[in-house]
Every structure is written in C-alpha cells, then in structure tokens.
Amino acid sequence: MTMKSIDEGLAIINEGKKELIEVDGMTYRRLAIRTHVLAPPDDLCQVAQKYAKPLLQKGDVLFFTEKAVAAVQGRAVPVDEIKVSLLARILVKFVYKNPGGIGISMPESMEMAVRECGRLRILFAAFISAIGKLLGKRGWFYKIAGYRVAAIDGPADYVIAPYNRCVVLGPLEPDKTAQKIADAVNCPVIITDINDLGGQILGASSQEIDRLLMVRILKDNPLGQSKQQTPIGIIRPVR
Fold first, then answer.
1. Strand extents, DSSP E, 60-211
2. pLDDT by residue (tens digit) across 60-90?
3. Residue 41: CB partners within 8 Å, gap ≥ 6?
4. Which residues are registered as beta bridge partners of 37?
5. Is the pTM of this model over 0.85?
6. Predicted confidence (pLDDT) per residue in 173-223, tens digit
7. How far apart are CA 198 and CA 214, in angstroms?
8. Which residues contact 210 (CB under 8 A, 6 or more apart)?
9. What is the C-alpha separation between 163 and 72, in angstroms, rounded?
C-alpha cells in the first residue's frame, strides 16, 4: 500500500489499485481511508465521523465494506467456536470453490450459512442449485438462500487478524445501517460486498442511489480484500 497526497488531505491508494475509473463517460475518484481494526464496541457512526467526515465534499458517496459493518455488529465468529453439523459437512462437498474467496466452501462457513438460512431453506436452495447446474447455470443457490448467506466470508491467511480465523456473516439491516451513518455525516452511504471478481451493494441510505452504477465504479475493488486495513472509502465524481 502507498500513501498518496490528495488535494483535500491524506488518503490511501492501495497497491495495485487505481484512484480513477471512468464509467459511462464520467470519471470517479475512489479514495481509500485507513482506520484502526474495527470490532465491537466500535460505533460505525463515530468511525465515519472520525476518519471520513473531514474529507467529505458535496457529491461524495461514502462506502463501507460489509465485513467491517458485520464485524462491528459482532457477527465475526471464531472458527474454533463453530460446531459443524452433519448437514453442513454434506452440503459443503457440492459447493463451487470460488477463487475470489472462501465463502461457504468450508464446513464451518457452511454451518453458519445453515444457521443463517435455516435447514429447510438451505436444502431447497441446494436442490434448486443442482437443477441450475444441470442447465449450465450458476448462482441459483444464493438467489434462494439470500444475501445473508452470499455475504458470508470464511477465514483466510491473507485477511487481517483477528478475522483471518473467523467466519464473518453478512451485516444486519444494511439499509438502515447505511441510513444511520448517512445521518451522522450528512452524506450518502452504501455498504458494499465487493471482491476482486465483482460484487453487489448490500445497503444504501437512499433509494435514489444507483446500486448498479456503484458496483461498476467499484468493480476493481479499490479497498482490497487483504490486510490493507481500509474498510471505508469515498466515491467522488470528477468535475
């Protein structure tokens, strides 16, 4: 990671990431902001006020990673505290191993998916997924299981401690959480689930925010997903 002087202050441009991106003829700056390692009892509004508010300008959109939000909500579960059921051990054998992350491809993260989704729903999702595979289609499992399963992240050596040994669940009430943060900093806020292969917007402080546009602006994952320690950032249109 490198430190780069920005006209409004000091921001982090993560190694291998670009500050600018052009979408539909419009150029956007993506400013990554380094924080301390977020965990309970941190307050997301206070984090935004401390690290981001001094940099915010009119037209900006503030974004938080879903892992940071979930971690502060106490939804990071140490792997060694997860008792894996037989159902989870069976289901995990059929999971597609996504190169973008662990997801639910390990028994412990699958167990948490079962708990989040419920046995009946996850079995139905697995059944529909099997049909999809026969038709050459992927992603049906998560459409049935829902975002709270799709957003689950498993442990990995490249993740910052202590989350390198945790299963991190999806954030609770992402729209309401985004709105609460937005009220605290007087700026639109989104909660993102972005990795190096793509992603989605889990929460937005306003229905007027174009979620598909936000995904396109962040498609190269400017905050990174390793040990950058930049869980928040700013999207700024270039005038």
1. 61-65, 76-78, 166-168, 189-195, 198-204
2. 999 999 999 999 999 999 999 999 999 999 9
3. none
4. none
5. yes
6. 999 999 999 999 999 999 999 875 568 999 999 999 999 999 999 998 998
7. 11
8. none
9. 12
